[in-house]
Design goal:
The protein is built from 14 helices and no strands. By secondary structure, it is an all-alpha fold.
C-alpha cells in the first residue's frame, strides 16, 4: 500500500508558478531591452553602411561593406566639433547654475521653516509638469526685447529655469533622508547654515548631485526648439540644430548615412557621461526612494 503526502502538491504548484513567473519576467526584460536598443543599433549600423546598402530594397539590416566615410563627411563639410563644444558649454553652464541655485532652495524646503512651504512645493511641481514649449512665444519676445539673440544667455537662462524645479524636487527628497543629528552636531560646533550645507551635507549628497546634474545636462544638450530659434549664427549652433540641418549634395537627397553618423557622434558624449557616473546615478535614484 502506498501513501501520498498531500503537502507535496502545493509545493509543486508553487514551483511551477515561480518558474512561469521567472520565464515571463525574462521575456519581458528581453522585449524591453530589444525595443529600447533596436533604434540605437539601427542608427549605428546605418552610419557604417555604404550608400548602396542604405538605399537597397529590401532592407539590408547588416552591412555587407563597412565604411567610415559618413563620419569623415560630417566633420569635413561642417565644423561639427565646434557644434559639440557649443552644446557642452551651454549644457554645462546651465547644469552648474541649476545645482548652485536649486540645491540651497531644496535644503531650505527640506529643513528650514519656510512660510508658504506647501504652496512653493505645489508651484514647483506645476512648473515641472508645465510643457515648456508653451513658453516659446513669451521667451522669443523677451529675447528680442533684450537683444539676446545669438547670445548663449538666450539658451542658458531658459534651460536653467526649466531644470531648476527638477533639481529642487530631487535634492529635497535626498536631504529629507539625511539624519538631523548631523546638523545638530554641526550647530554645536558653531557652524552656520551655509557652512553646514557646504562642508557637511553636500559631500553626503554627491549621488543626488550627480544624478540631477546629468538629467539637467542631458535635457539641455538635447533641446532643439529654443536653440534653433534663438541662435542663428552658424558658429554658435548646437548639436541638435546642426544635425537637423545636414543636407545632401542634391536638393531632394536625404543623407541617411550622414544623419545617422551625426546622431551617433552627438549621442556618444552622453553615453560616456552616463557610463562614467552610472554607480552614482543608481545611488542617487534609489537613495531617496525608501525612508528609514
Amino acid at each position: 500500500m502506498t501513501t501520498t503526502h498531500p503537502s507535496a502538491y502545493p509545493a509543486a504548484k508553487t514551483d511551477r508558478a515561480f518558474s512561469l513567473r521567472k520565464v515571463l519576467l525574462t521575456i519581458g526584460v528581453i522585449f524591453v531591452v530589444v525595443f529600447s536598443l533596436a533604434p540605437i543599433l539601427w542608427q549605428v549600423l546605418t552610419s557604417i553602411k555604404v550608400n548602396a546598402d542604405i538605399a537597397a530594397i529590401p532592407n539590408v539590416y547588416f552591412p555587407r561593406q563597412f565604411t567610415l566615410q559618413h563620419y569623415i563627411e560630417i566633420f569635413n563639410r561642417r565644423p561639427f566639433l565646434n557644434y559639440m563644444l557649443n552644446s557642452f558649454f551651454v549644457a554645462a553652464t546651465s547644469t552648474l547654475l541649476c545645482l548652485a541655485l536649486g540645491t540651497p532652495a531644496a535644503y531650505a524646503l527640506a529643513r528650514l521653516r519656510v512660510p508658504g512651504e506647501r504652496f512653493i512645493l505645489a508651484l514647483v511641481l506645476i512648473v515641472t509638469l508645465f510643457p515648456y514649449i508653451l513658453l516659446f512665444i513669451g521667451l522669443l519676445e523677451i529675447v528680442r526685447a533684450t537683444g539676446l539673440a545669438n547670445n548663449y544667455l538666450a539658451l542658458i537662462i531658459p534651460y536653467t529655469a526649466i531644470n531648476i524645479p527638477l533639481t529642487i524636487l530631487v535634492m529635497r527628497s535626498f536631504f529629507q533622508q539625511l539624519p538631523r543629528d548631523l546638523e545638530d552636531s554641526a550647530k554645536v560646533d558653531s557652524y552656520n547654515t551655509w557652512q553646514m550645507l557646504v562642508r557637511i551635507l553636500l559631500p553626503l549628497t554627491t549621488p543626488a548631485l550627480v544624478t540631477t546634474g546629468i538629467l539637467a545636462f542631458i535635457a539641455a544638450w538635447n533641446e532643439f526648439i529654443f536653440a534653433l530659434t534663438f541662435i542663428t549664427r552658424e558658429s554658435m549652433k548646437t548639436i541638435p540644430v546642426a544635425v537637423a540641418q545636414i543636407s545632401g549634395t542634391a536638393v531632394f537627397e536625404i543623407p541617411y548615412g550622414a544623419l545617422a553618423a551625426a546622431t551617433v557622434v552627438g549621442t556618444l558624449p552622453l553615453v560616456i557621461l552616463v557610463l562614467l557616473f552610472q554607480r552614482r546615478i543608481v545611488q542617487g535614484l534609489t537613495a531617496g526612494a525608501v525612508k528609514g
